[in-house]
Design brief:
Length: 601
């Protein structure tokens, strides 16, 4: 199938933009790999320290010419998605021993749960945790005793941070091992309705707590299609998972078989064998474009608009939000998974899931078919599904058709002809909107501005009955330089109630919205941010604003707007407590949201 012309155009543009940085990156990776496995060059004292506690594996580590696998784990048992990782190191060690190799936990990385910190001060550390994760993984791998690495991480900032580390150590292979989604609980739409009723006082905290616990009820990722599950999709489209690994539930025989197979595959593709596939060779411009297509075709989380540029930059590839928008315009929206629909990821997987979508997109010329992956060259492998046959793991052809066209549809007959993201640009700066869950009649909102400097004040105004008119809510000084760019997901129930009352409402912010948000039109990641004197800091209460997702514009309709001086506010209260003090160096050095809001790259 011929490659779609937009895909070709965007890829060529990224290659041209990245020519110098990608060349420098590949030169670094070549130099790092040219000496062969690094363990051979360590002194006896260095090696003795590394192997002192390895018991039965000491002989293999010191005398055998076999691979040693480094495990970077984000395990903790506060994150339901990461609880399954508690047992993974032993499974991986046993898998390595079964083929004469070894495995060691190289290091642990922090893993925040945005569901716990949502609306709380800790959320102001959430985005920065991505770069901390990359740094922590780098420390673990810096011991230089590993021939390949496996990465245990799933949720919002964890996978992007781990990919940044995998790219930085791109001279060795990297395989990502998922844990899978929890089994389905209360329907996500029912949960959202209870949240809205709580916001209006129709139900109390006891009913709210019961609904939340029925939704988040066991090990595995949350079942809505937010950032965590978007990450899992991305790892398949980018070839860093084994095919079909993303959405197999925890604590099942197939899940364990895929974990074992992933560990063994990481050992097979080291420089010691005949299939050497370093991570840097996988993470090229075409692979990132495939990731963009997956994001748009599935209606994935807007958080990846921040994370993908940071991930790509770590491998010398430079992405711009223009690339996201152009790919979105060319990519059909093929999936409806909550918050874009009523189904959860388990229903999506059962209906054909990623294997079906990848096959369809390849046939439509909307994916680069010849990318390198951890499973081998060529993305067609990811149109197959893993099965256990007589106890053996095999990959078989996928369904070839959707098993529920209310959840997944063919590329030629999609839910809508374009993807779920739109770039917005105007005299307020540049931002993005996730439009896949926003009703078409709400794609344009023109209304007076109401200015807020935190989400608490929006809720206070709502409870006081002040919000009775069409309004564009400008929630500013929420960017990475101001307070770490927290998610504002806790505003969703309030804004949804106003919208359901018949008001035209929109949100404009230099902060983020959760990957689970969607039904309210939200211009997010607006850059330059208010704390840098961006145009958002010049908006006044009562200004007429136009948020237009159809035309892709974001403007203040006031004649004197370009003559105004930006306001400044005291942010010191948001720079103290809950660990925020120690992140001042991050706030002072963070990049623009349009470049990924990275600190370390």
């Amino acid at each position: 199938m011929t490659l779609h012309p937009t895909l070709e155009k965007v890829t060529d543009r990224i290659i041209a933009r990245s020519r110098d940085s990608r060349s420098r990156y590949l030169d670094r990776m070549t130099r790092a790999a040219e000496d062969g496995p690094r363990r051979a060059h360590l002194s006896c004292s260095n090696q003795a320290h590394a192997y002192a506690a390895m018991g039965e594996d000491k002989t293999a580590l010191t005398t055998a010419r076999s691979a040693n696998l480094g495990i970077i784990t984000a395990y903790n048992d506060m994150l339901s998605a990461h609880k399954p990782y508690e047992s993974y190191p032993q499974i991986i060690r046993d898998a390595a021993r079964s083929v004469g190799a070894t495995a060691q936990v190289a290091g642990g990385v922090p893993a925040m749960c945005d569901g716990v910190t949502q609306g709380e001060p800790g959320m102001e550390l959430s985005l920065f945790s991505r770069d901390v994760i990359a740094l922590a993984a780098g420390v673990g791998l810096s011991h230089n005793t590993f021939d390949a690495a496996v990465f245990l991480g799933i949720c919002d900032k964890i996978v992007p941070g781990l990919v940044m580390a995998a790219a930085t150590f791109g001279h060795i292979p990297a395989v990502f091992l998922p844990g899978g989604p929890m089994t389905s609980g209360i329907a996500n739409d029912d949960k959202a309705k209870v949240r809205q009723k709580f916001a209006t006082g129709e139900v109390g905290r006891e009913e709210l707590m019961a609904a939340e616990m029925a939704a988040y009820h066991g090990p595995g990722t949350c079942t809505f299609y937010g950032t965590a599950n978007t990450n899992q999709m991305l790892m398949e489209f980018m070839g860093l998972h084994l095919p079909g690994a993303s959405f197999v539930n925890p604590d099942t025989p197939l899940r364990e078989a895929l974990t074992v197979a992933g560990a063994r595959r990481a050992l097979e593709i080291t420089a010691l064998g005949n299939e050497f596939t370093p991570a840097g060779a996988i993470l090229d411009e075409r692979t990132y474009v495939n990731g963009l297509v997956g994001l748009m075709a599935t209606g994935g989380s807007t958080n990846l608009v921040l994370h993908l540029p940071a991930m790509a930059r770590a491998s010398g590839v430079l992405l711009d939000i223009e690339d996201f928008s152009d790919i979105s315009d060319a990519t059909p929206l093929m999936a409806k998974v909550y918050p874009n629909g009523l189904a959860d990821v388990n229903h999506f997987h059962a209906a054909g899931g990623l294997a079906y979508m990848i096959g369809e997109l390849l046939e439509a010329g909307l994916l680069h078919p010849d990318t390198e992956t951890v499973a081998g060259k060529g993305l067609a492998r990811y149109a197959k599904e893993p099965k256990l046959r007589d106890g053996a793991l095999v990959w078989e052809d996928g369904t070839g058709k959707t098993l529920n066209d209310k959840i997944v549809r063919p590329a030629k007959d999609p839910f809508q002809p374009t993807g779920g993201l739109k770039q917005l640009q105007g005299n307020l700066g540049r931002g993005v909107m996730k439009v896949s869950a926003v009703a078409p009649e709400r794609h344009i909102v023109e209304a007076r501005a109401r200015i807020f400097h935190n989400h608490h004040d929006v809720k206070t105004a709502f409870k006081a009955g002040e919000l009775t008119e069409d309004t564009v809510f400008v929630v500013r000084f929420q960017g990475p330089r101001a307070i770490g760019m927290p998610e504002l997901h806790s505003l969703t129930p309030v804004l949804a109630v106003l919208q359901d009352r018949g008001l035209k409402v929109a949100l404009v912010t230099d902060g983020r919205m959760s990957g689970a948000s969607g039904k309210v039109p939200s211009a997010i990641h607006v850059s330059p941010e208010a704390a840098l004197g961006g145009p958002l800091a010049c908006v006044r209460d009562g200004d007429m604003l136009r948020v237009d997702a159809k035309a892709g514009t974001l403007d203040v309709l006031e004649a004197d707007f370009d003559k105004r001086a930006p306001v400044q506010i005291d942010l010191s209260a948001s720079h103290e407590g809950i660990g925020r003090e120690i992140f001042e160096v991050f706030r002072q050095n963070v990049g623009l949201a349009t470049d990924g809001a990275a600190v370390i790259l």
